[in-house]
Amino acid sequence: MKAFLKFALLLTLLTSFVAPLNANFGQETLTFDSGSELVKHQLITVSFNETFSSTPIVFAEPITETGGQAVQPVIDNVTTTTFDLRIEEDRGRDGSWLNGPHVFETVNWIAFDPTEITAGEGIEAGTSNFYQPNYAHSETVTLTETYASVPFVFAQLNTNNGGHVSRPDLTSLSTTSFDVRDEEDPGDGVDPGGWDGRHMAEDMAYLAIDSTLDLSDSGMYFDSESITESWTTVCYLGDCSDVYVDVPSVFVEIQSENEADTAQADLRNVGVASFDVRLEEQTLGGWDNTHVAEDVAWLSYGEPVAPAFDPSDYNVWVVDTDSSGDTLIQSILVAEGYNVTFLDSSYVETDLDNTYDLLVWPGGMDPVTDAMFNLTLRDTIKTYMDAGGDYIGVCGGGIAGSETMYLMDNPYGLPDATWDVFGTGEGVNADYDYDWTSYIGAAIYPDVEVATDHDIFDGYYTAGDQFMMTYAGGPVFNGAGFTTLATFTANIDDYNDDPNYPATGEAAIVETEYTTDYNGDGDSESGGVILFALHPEFLADTEFLLEQSAEYLLTE
Asked: In CATH, what number does 311-555 get?
């Protein structure tokens, strides 16, 4: 799911960022929203882009340090549509610490419905409401998930009922519970400006995450570091490489209490590879700003940098069809670095499963007859596609990969008729003249025209460009519901007097998906499909189309 992109230039100068696809702590059904606001000490109202069926919980953190005085976010009035937000300096009870007004800081936030989190996934969240009768009082929050090790816990007040500055203070974290208090900074016990430690009841939102989870695909990284009052640079990855496209959100929470002086985790220099963090004491409250090491958990969230594509990560089955192009296709993909299996359709029928990321079916008559008559093989292919497999069909493999085929000039005296084939390319019909050799010969080299800009053309060709490909008896694609990538610029029957094979303007390369829930389990993974009527493997100038098609399908 992508979070919203919101720009506003009112008195609050709101800004925001685009969150990555598939966020939600790795949970597909979680209603989740996020944003970034320019905020100062004056309250603003932030509107959710997502529709929440129940009141969400909100976490916010300043990721800049433009002003020199310490601040913390204040969240209030959370509803299903909006929440209020500002940043707050701790002035102390008599106003002698800080002056209150503060320059704009960037505050990033996330919001989600904790009731939608799936149990048993190592993530839990909720709200605890409690009154703080005195400084030493703690409440115990019991965790419901089962953790092998102590989880990371993040906490945030989602109300602002009390007039004194306060924040959650976590202690005694374990695999089953944690203790929390609503901490006011009392100063050193001598300064008259310290708070008294009592606080009205507040709603505290919390999030607990199993430290062993990997949510990097969702744009989330988290860990814990031992931090003192000195600035420490924390990298999202151990090699300090760039992880995010743009500056992410970072949320921090102290997990221990090794020293009694009140402290908060303070951020600066949040970037795409790392951020700086320290423990900050309020020296105006009488603390010395020297603090022993505490464990600080952090969570980062943003749009991840796309990983470098590595063909060696993928298993590809190129079907041995005994055609002149199958070994060329095999060689092209092996040279790219793919792990290529090269076996005929009898092995496909028994051994194809989703340990193979891509199935490539070259040309020849074998794939056409296999698709027409081998129902067991057809079932295997559809099962593979239903589970998310990808398919490239070339010439005869393109015919086989269509949903239907209109067969002309059948050699057995049968009338022209439509046949079911593999059905991987939903909505695609392949017109195929069996007797093409009588008027084409071995091959011709017609032009095709690019119909739409697409990744498989890799910038070499754009819409309207024409280039030559090898035709050796392939189909003409028609139908509905697919994307035409290239079209024929001339009729196949222009090469003889056959009137049955018009092609001008018809599809020569198509992209589609297999979205049918073939197994009826309610979980089709939408396998990607690219079909070629012509041969990309025969000409040096077009074999890149095969390479780019493979990469495109495997990274979509």
From this structure: 3.40.50.880
* Gap between the Cα atoms of 479 and 426, Å rounded: 9
The Cα–Cα gap between 136 and 108 comes to 31
- Return the domain boundaries, the chain: 24-301, 311-555
Cβ neighbour number for residue 144 with a 10 Å cutoff: 10
What is the side-by-side order of every strand in the sheet holding 82-88?
A: 44-47, 82-88, 72-76
- Cα(136)–Cα(253) distance, rounded to whole angstroms? 20
Condensed to tens digits (0 to 9), the pLDDT of residues 175-227 reads 999 999 999 999 887 767 889 899 999 999 999 999 999 999 889 999 999 99
Helix axes of 375-386 and 366-373: crossing angle, nearest 10 degrees: 90
Secondary structure, 3-state, 185-215: CCCCCCCCCCCCCCEEEEEEEEEEECCCCCC
- Summarize pLDDT for 379-391 with one digit per residue, the tens: 999 999 999 999 9
In 40-80 the beta strands, taken as DSSP E runs, fall at 44-47, 57-62, 72-76
What is the maximal distance between C-alpha atoms in the chain? 105
H or E, element range at 550: helix 543-555
Distance, CA of 208 to CA of 160 (rounded, Å) = 22
Whether the full predicted model's pTM is greater than 0.70, yes or no, is: no
Tell me the C-alpha distance between 94 and 71, whole Å.
Answer: 18
- Check: CB of residue 391 under 8 Å from CB of residue 319: no
For residue 521, give every residue at least 6 positions away whose Cβ sits within 8 Å of its Cβ, in sequence order, or none: none
